[in-house]
Amino acid sequence: MILAIPDVLTAAQVVEARRQLEAAEWVDGRVTAGHQGARVKDNQQLPEGSPAAQQVGRTILQALAGNPLFMSAALPLHVLPPYFNRYSGGQTFGTHVDGSIRTMPDGRRIRTDLSCTLFFANPDEYDGGELIIEDTYGSKSVRLPAGHMILYPSTSLHQVTPATRGPRLCSFFWLQSMIRADSQRVLLFDMDVAIQRLGAENPGHPSLVALTGVYHNLLRQWAEM
């Protein structure tokens, strides 16, 4: 499932985040790439210990914790602290797949089920820099407004095309879901959306309790904690 999540951050939060990010020290983005990724990665990145990265990262995670669409679609168990990258002057990140295991700050290792990219620059502020995600039905090109985020399976091949005018400024990070299989997450998400729609249109519908029970019983059966 590839899902755009609008308005993760407010306009004011985006302005403040950009102020902090643009004043920060940036380094070669290959410092966090694996062997395969380093061969095709050309961008800039904030170091993990950057105060700006930590502060803006906390803002993102707090916003996502209160975002019903994200929680329903991702069913997150562990979320890595966000990273930040910048592309300009033709910089690009060739086709790659994200690493399957990442390490949390406390040393725990987590499985990367879902990848997240949150945009801080509006599409009219840069040329190129499209996030291209290979899906079952073909390639999907993503350029979202500032404050919006794309959520997609970490198993997907993807790339960032050359940013010929910029900069393209984003946050990226990964999470381990309570539900390992993307197909099961999609079923639970579709059912949750249908239950919410039914509840809004027919609050007293007798099937609401039964359907909610099915949802939670499937979640109970499939969840890994």
Give the arrangement of secondary structure elements.
Blueprint: E1 3-5, H1 11-22, E2 27-28, H2 35-38, E3 41-42, E4 44-45, H3 51-65, H4 68-74, E5 76-79, E6 83-87, E7 91-96, E8 101-103, E9 109-111, E10 114-119, E11 127-128, E12 131-135, E13 138-142, E14 149-153, E15 158-165, E16 168-177, H5 182-201, H6 207-222
Antiparallel strand pairs: 1-14, 2-4, 3-7, 4-6, 5-16, 6-16, 7-15, 8-9, 10-14, 10-16, 11-15, 12-13, 12-15
Helix pairs in contact: 1-3, 5-6
- Reading the helices and strands in chain order gives EHEHEEHHEEEEEEEEEEEEHH
- How much of the sequence lies in strands comes to 25-35%
Number of helices in the DSSP assignment: 6
Instruction: Assign a percent range to the helix content.
Output: 25-40%
Could you explain the architecture of this structure?
Strands 1, 2, 4, 5, 6, 10, 14 and 16 form an eight-stranded antiparallel beta sheet that branches. Strands 3, 7, 11, 12, 13 and 15 form a six-stranded antiparallel beta sheet that branches. The chain is globular, with a radius of gyration of 18 Å. The mean pLDDT is 95. The protein is α+β, with helices and mostly antiparallel strands. The chain has six helices and 16 strands.
